[in-house]
Amino acid sequence: MNAVILATGDELVLGQNVDTNSAWLSERLAAHGVMTIYHKTVGDDLDAIIAELAEGAQAAELVILTGGLGPTSDDLTREALGRVLGVPLDLHEPSLERIRMFFQKLGRPMPETNHVQALCPRGADVLENDFGTAPGIAATIGGARVFALPGVPGEMKGMFDRHVLPTVRNRSGRTILTEAVRTFGGGESSIAEKLGDLMRRDRNPLVGTTASGGLVTVRIRSDFPSAGKAEHELATVVRQVEERLGNFVFGRGDTSLAQAVGNLLKSRRKTVTTVESCTGGMVGKLLTDVAGSSAYYRGGWVVYSNRLKELELGISMEIIIRHGAVSEPVASLMAERAVNKTDADYALAITGVAGPDGGSDDKPVGTVWVAMARNAPDHPVVRAECFRFPGDRDMVRDRAAKTALNILRLELMKSLS
Amino acid sequence: MNAVILATGDELVLGQNVDTNSAWLSERLAAHGVMTIYHKTVGDDLDAIIAELAEGAQAAELVILTGGLGPTSDDLTREALGRVLGVPLDLHEPSLERIRMFFQKLGRPMPETNHVQALCPRGADVLENDFGTAPGIAATIGGARVFALPGVPGEMKGMFDRHVLPTVRNRSGRTILTEAVRTFGGGESSIAEKLGDLMRRDRNPLVGTTASGGLVTVRIRSDFPSAGKAEHELATVVRQVEERLGNFVFGRGDTSLAQAVGNLLKSRRKTVTTVESCTGGMVGKLLTDVAGSSAYYRGGWVVYSNRLKELELGISMEIIIRHGAVSEPVASLMAERAVNKTDADYALAITGVAGPDGGSDDKPVGTVWVAMARNAPDHPVVRAECFRFPGDRDMVRDRAAKTALNILRLELMKSLS
User: Whole-prediction pTM value?
Assistant: First the structure.
């Protein structure tokens, strides 16, 4: 079974918003053996939406369109569907009632504008929306089943699972399984070289790499008629990829570095605290993105000002002035004091020049000291390392935070073996 | 002048990565009067890429394709362009030399795989890449100018500015100007109601709304033959939008809430500190995303564990046990102590149940206390407010962090007037 994914919205085609729905839909569909042929994004233009619905319905058996179901006059999906189907729009009373109820729960009257959301092309199916006001619509155009879902990701996702999945499940003659192996610390071409012949384009499972946010992700796609075969071949190639890449690999699927670190901390019953200067709380944010992180993350300090470095961690102004706030002694003291103050097993400390200002000849923008302290009987064991990260402020901070997490990951893996 | 934006990559069409390039390109093009007709994403499939290049070149005068210029065997753009043009690929020696130099600077030998990146369809133009190894390619297909750029956003953006912009600038007969007015605190339909007739679809400038991440952004698009007229009309409508929306508006363009707060703090010469529990450093992260934030952000604490709340801010276990860590007294004490310890003018404190676990009947997941303390002669003035945010852990944390920033924003606006 093939699919076409359409997205509508001036804000998308003009680039004011990034379309994340299409990627999410494709991934869910692929997991159920449905291959997406293409994504296409057009503006809030009735003729363009009509043309794309017709073309999509010719190209694939399944068409999913997101957006254009809102209450405002730039929401044109209902009308476009009616035109393609050649039917008028009827008021769907139960939908109107649901929309009224939705506002009632919020303790507000329904704005008059929301009235249009209860319109539906005659003969099409209304898809209930449990997460917002816009019902979806399902219809058959030629040989294709077409689903129109809201553009708001939170609403779209719930409606896809409830209304679209049952239709597509098991209707495909193939099983396509994908897995991602996530790595940190190697560039894309060096990862590709390690993978070598595994990346040949005529292989099945097919192996590809993508670089994003300092991570290189290895994608493996297994496409076979039988589910058992697809699964077995996928598992075999995933194992080969992981063997070839060794310590670069931190997880599978959409595992984040912070999750990988969290899992290691949990399995070792260890705890960590953080002391951040240039990253301003990013490492803490990444660690606490993970549900259950309170089992191993204590919290810590954002010592953005030198005064807080002195006040909270007792790093004297004299040391800061002598070596600079971005220096090995300051990074090491940050980590050491944090371990001492919290009794955590590990502390991660970051101090750097994130830019765009504040760089100098010997400490250009991108210079970051990362220190890790490990609690030990007499005195914490501290190790600090200096990095020069490329790119702008965002990239420097992102790489600094991830590098700190990775240093802890490698330390925990070492202590595991 | 019209444009078509193409993106290639199995990881995109299968939904493993989100395409952010197309949105970025459309926005840049729109700013220079080039309207994007559509975005289309296809996989690493030679025939599909060839077909899209041909179709794009028929639909628009400008075609920009991203991706497929890497060193691996799933990078097919060079070959697809050669096929559409009906020419062989030649080795471009200066590119090979640049790629070698790139690796030399990194202190590594050039992997053999990178060799293919120096191939270019005969007669096409090579576009130098100052940011990575993949040169771009420009060619003319029928009446269209086609640019192939790398998929890595950092490289693509630099190359667009250097190689594509000069071609498109001033070749368009219209001036399209866009502005975004950013709001926080109101739902999309209530914002739309306040805008009323300004949102009529037959108006120019055209006004639309989009909701994302708790923010509602009002987009205004002004499209006139004369630059002066486009500018004047845009300014007029932006002013009208801002008047109707009042305090909901925190900025224009891509201003973030943290930037808006930062600008207010700077203009008032005030400083802020943060104490975060469930957000784990997000508010600090958001504040320090902004370059120059050290002028007003002191840093603070991530008191993720109750022990750190006690140890660092002197909030006794007795209080935490009696009221719960997610309570008005604890939130208020967090903010008050932070002001006292740092001498900052304001403190923002957040404690809540981010979920998925930890909720109870009276404090379900999504319950968040946000407190703000203001330094005052005798004793900080503290105000705390309780919220019930919808959604999952990510959404609750995101809304909590933004709501805290917004509370400070409204306070600073009040003290300005």
Answer: 0.77
